Amino acid sequence: MKKVLVTGFEPFGNDTVNLALEVVKALANEKIPNVNLVTLILPVVFGKAIEALKAAIEREQPELVISLGQAGDRNAINVEKLGININHARIADNEGNQPNEEMIDPTGPAAYFTTIKISNTVESIKEAEIPAKVSFSAGTYVCNNLIYGIMHYLYSSKKHEKIKYGFIHIPYLPSIPLNLIKKAVQITIQANI
Ligand code: PCA
């Protein structure tokens, strides 16, 4: 059995629902062959989401971590390649923080790459007739902050070879129905364990 941790986010901005949270809730009730799935919901707060996920990685020791976030302006499943070293918020996070072009780590690299197989994953999702693409920008809000912070942690603690990390941005309903988004996440897990 492989241990896999999947994370979603609380609602944010003017929304009362976050599809990433709904998908994680739906996944928690499913069985995936050979997978021991654990799930976690993260706060939409710069820095705090990173700390919550780091604590869960330490506690659960998963082999694969997939984070999900909602991005209303996308029209396909976006498998993110990287997180960049910038916090820049169009709207405040859930604790009122609204950074303006701030570096996440002034001594860190400009970007970190995620460590799942991005292109293979996208191809596998598309084979199931679910729209998907590789994305080279996760924005500059809390999702990007999480990718950068978690990859920084995995690299600096030399855990990146053992623990793979991937991030998926999902569009708003109804462009892709919830059960297909759930399927895309299951395919992502299977393509990377
Ligand atoms: N999407 C936001 C943060 C939480 C979420 O689901 C983002 O794309 O940064």
Quick one: CATH class? Answer: Alpha Beta
Structural class computed from helices and strand pairing: alpha/beta
Tell me the domain tally.
Answer: 1
User: Tally the helices: what do you get?
Assistant: 5
Order of helices and strands: EHEHEEEEHEHEH
The ligands bound in this entry are: pyroglutamic acid
- Report the biggest beta sheet as strand number plus sense, adding barrel if it closes: 6 strands, mixed
Strand order of the largest sheet: 2-1-3-8-4-7
| Unreliable stretches covering 5 or more consecutive residues | none
Helix content: 25-40%
Task: Report the strand count.
Answer: 8
The CATH homologous superfamily is called Peptidase C15, pyroglutamyl peptidase I-like
Rounded mean pLDDT is 96
Alpha-carbon distance between the two ends:
10 Å
Shape: globular
CATH topology: Aminopeptidase
Descriptive key words:
Aminopeptidase; alpha/beta; 193 residues; binds pyroglutamic acid
Structure in a nutshell:
By secondary structure, the protein is of the alpha/beta class.
Structure description:
The chain is of the alpha/beta class. It has one domain: Aminopeptidase. Helix content is 33%, strand content 23%. The chain has five helices and eight strands. The chain has helices at residues 19-28, 48-60, 118-127, 142-156, 178-192, and strands at 2-9, 35-42, 64-70, 77-80, 82-84, 111-113, 132-135, 164-170. The protein has a six-stranded mixed β-sheet with strand order 2-1-3-8-4-7, sandwiched between helices. Helix 2 (48-60) packs across helix 4 (142-156) and helix 3 (118-127) packs across helix 5. The longest helix is centred in the last third of the chain and has 15 residues, at 142-156. The termini are close together. The mean pLDDT is 96. The chain binds pyroglutamic acid.
